Amino acid sequence: MSTYKWLVTGASAGLGAQIALAALSAGHSVIATARNVSKARSTCPKIEGLGGSWLELDVTSIETESIIAKAVKEERVNVIVNNAGYALEGPLEALSLDQIRREFDTNVFGAFAVMKGCIPTFRERLNGTIVNISSTAGICPLPSLSAYAASKFALEGMSEALYDELAPFDIRVLLVEPGAYRTDFITALQSNEIMAPYVGTAADNVSRKFRAMHGKQGGDPAKAAIAIIEAVTGEGKGKDVKGHLRLVLGKDAVARVLARTEQFAQNVEGLRHISEWAVFPDGE
Fold this sequence. Notes:
By secondary structure, this protein is an alpha/beta fold. Helix content is 47%, strand content 14%. It has a single domain (5-253), classed as Rossmann fold (3-Layer(aba) Sandwich). Helix 4 (64-75) packs parallel to helix 5. The relative contact order is 0.13.
């Protein structure tokens, strides 16, 4: 069995911790990152117990690119998992621009800095895998999560472009789109109180539904982590999946994404008469 050296950002809890633990359990080496390593050691002691190591990293730091570059080069990392991120909740008009910028600093610019740190060495080696943890919100956005969805849309666009951009150097990009998983995602939401005009609207309903489902989500984060590991290594259920960019995770996610692709096609067809009219006549 081939072994890999993983670096997982935001690995102190949730899916990030599960990915680190699954990789270690499969016999791989892992560098887990967290903003506060002391706290991470106490909340997730199994990572070091299984032979993993911690690296202090705040992906919003101006030093992120150089920290990642050093780790990839010196520690022979060949799989990067961009997992660090969080969700900002609330109607757009209730969110401050500062809140939105902070979310993009973590979810978008933090991920970009990590990728810029690893790509040069991956390219020189002609080997490497970048796993970007997106969300079904990156394809199927929900009311009250517009800022979060926008950040994931940005990550989706970057991943799609990089999939072909990095292929000549044998650098693989895997875009993971989880649905509802039983992690601390909901309790970690940075929420703004629903403004009075929005009470009873779609934004309010989504917020209430999110809180009602906490602890009842159908997605098993341990299985999700194993699925990601196997999709990267090509083992188990991951056999022969390397030609695919997207890994949609969860029954709910598959249903939502398929429905959205159908809606998209219907939208294009429904306005096709306008779209195809807005061109120069043939031959001009």
